[in-house]
């Protein structure tokens, strides 16, 4: 069973690094579908994996001097996301306390993620017809980052597809630039969420081999995905992104039906 953690983490991180969605948006629903742990455990493992992958990808780009991160907007967004990561962690704990059945928590997350993913898919398909904006005010960037951080931490997906939509619509970024900035935001939100988990002593039960394999898969996937991202144009990335959204929606529907029916 442990090898499944690595396979899921690696493949998810490959597409996550290419598209800038962090991999967690695939890891979380797939592990839920395979029933590889409780909602809290999967959230934790997914968050650690996404953190490791984004740390590698962002660090490598910055060292290589080919980073597409727009610091003037990316940093306020990331700081807001860090605060949101802590709030999202507390929100997850509150929702978890509402349900005696842990499967119901996963169901709630599946419904939320499914709705977000459908909206993201529709935007991606029709984005050529939708006018974009170019927000520059730091306060607005922080607020937007805050909301992104809350959603990503609560859902345990790192950043997911919503980051790309927001970065494209509010900041006029093309797909590859949005991908780089998304990973930068994910790095901050997941680091803050993990720190909050450690400080509050709310680390769920998990198997150390599973965590090691997932982190290894996350870093390995980040290496491979970053290489592919350099060779692919925006159109190819968009096609992969759309296909991935369709897959995620299907998995979310399955997970929600299993939880509530």
Query: Strand count, sense and closure of the main sheet?
Result: none
By DSSP, the count of extended strands is 0
By DSSP (H or I, 4+ residues per run), the number of helices equals 10
Q: Helices and strands, in N-to-C order?
A: HHHHHHHHHH
Query: How does the helix and strand content classify structurally?
Result: mainly alpha
Low-confidence stretches: none
Question: Helicity level, as a percent range?
Answer: over 70%
- Taken from the alpha-carbon principal axes, the silhouette is globular
Number of domains: 1
Mean pLDDT level:
88
Q: Tell me the distance between the termini.
A: 27 Å
Radius of gyration: 17 Å
Beta strand %: under 5%
Description:
The chain is mainly α and 261 residues long. It has helices at residues 2-19, 24-33, 39-64, 71-98, 102-126, 138-155, 161-171, 175-199, 208-231, 234-260. Helix 4 (71-98) runs parallel beside helix 6 (138-155), helix 5 (102-126) runs parallel beside helix 7 (161-171) and helix 6 packs across helix 8 (175-199). It is globular and about 45 Å long.
